[in-house]
Structure formats: structure tokens, C-alpha cells
Specification:
With 102 residues, the chain is mostly helical. It is 75% helix and 0% strand. It has a domain at 32-101. It contains four helices and no strands.
Length: 102
């Protein structure tokens, strides 16, 4: 086989090895035995891997906390700008909750 095609194939292969951005990263965590057992049971019951369930749980946790932080920062920005609800807006919300509770 000529040298050039072999080099081209090797370079292409190296490109695929280097560009692993689509591949998931590995994260090792330590959890207590009871939680691990529960995770194993859940994985079996849902026909998923423990890794997949853990990744989904971590993703949901990160999503929720990022959302909370964004909302807190937005609220602080509004408070710093003294952008508060007026009394009528507060009354509308209170009435909504009163009617929803009864």
C-alpha cells in the first residue's frame, strides 16, 4: 500500500480520537451502600443503566439549580432597580391564592 493513503488514514483516525466532544465524559462518584442498592433496583426496574439514571438525575439537579440562580439574580436586579409590585398587583395575587385554596 502506498505511503500517502496510509498516512491519510492514520491522520483521519487520529482526528476522530482527538475530537471526542460527542463522547460522554466519565465522572466517578462515591455514594452510600443503601443509595447504590436503591439505584441498582431502579435501574433494573426501568431497564436502564445505573450510569444513565445517575446522569439524568445530575442533569435535572443542575438544570433546577441553574434556573434558581438565574431567577434569584433577576429578582435581585429588579430589587436593586426598585422594581417592586404595586399594591394592586399584590392584591391580585392574594385574591388568586385565596380563591385557589378554597
Amino acid at each position: 500500500m502506498p505511503f500517502a493513503p496510509v498516512c491519510a488514514a492514520a491522520i483521519a483516525a487520529c482526528g476522530h480520537i482527538r475530537d471526542n466532544s460527542a463522547m460522554p465524559d466519565v465522572l466517578t462518584i462515591r455514594i452510600d451502600r443503601k443509595t447504590k442498592t436503591r439505584l441498582e433496583k431502579l435501574a433494573k426496574a426501568t431497564d436502564r443503566t445505573k450510569s444513565r439514571l445517575a446522569a439524568e438525575a445530575i442533569r435535572a439537579y443542575v438544570d433546577l439549580n441553574e434556573w434558581q440562580i438565574r431567577e434569584i439574580k433577576a429578582a435581585l436586579k429588579e430589587a436593586d432597580a426598585e422594581d417592586f409590585a404595586d399594591p394592586m398587583e399584590v392584591q391580585i395575587v392574594l385574591n388568586k391564592w385565596r380563591h385557589g385554596a378554597g
